[in-house]
Amino acid sequence: MFARVRRGFAPSIAAATAALALAACGANTANEDQAAQATGDFPARVQVRFPVRQHLAQPSQLVIAVTNTGARVMPNVAVTISNPAAPGAQAFGTLIAAPAPGQPILAGRSRAVWVIDRGPGPCGYSCHQGGPGAAVTSYTNTWALGRLRPGHTATFEWHLTALAPGAYTVAYRVAAGLSGKAPAVGATTAGALHVAIASTPRQAFVNAAGQVVESGGG
Fold it and tell me: How big is the chain by its Cα radius of gyration, in Å?
């Protein structure tokens, strides 16, 4: 079943706000510089959980737990999601066929297989407003949860809903940073999950005992 991150203000307030913003930018830049300078391999152990049989419109969760098993701090632990059968597709998506000659040109061929109801990371303003969440990065298929100390675990959790029936592969790869110079190494730091989505929604009913019973497997 299962496979194993203004106008109208008084001058003094505006100045204080600007100073805080500059300080925050300086801190972020310093963190990014430190992460960019981190190089070498970072040992890690990864555990993955995702239902391999699902139904159309069925909510599910993909959970990837990354444990830093090395002696150094990971600068910005990250997970990239892809579809090996459809390079260039968005995370949790696939590619539709290219248009034939003479047909309208598509703005993009990527189509979602799962909709992301909630991404990894703390659920702040963006998450509550239907946005991508706290762990989103400038890479469309990559989420990051920041520094990870030795012996600690970062848990990436996606809340998904299946949109398209069929057989799909969800591949993942873990990294210790976003620069490409700090790979996470270990037997489980990359892998692929093979998932079948049934074309009918999962059925549920209330039995005589008042219990909710789901049918159809999955």
Answer: 21
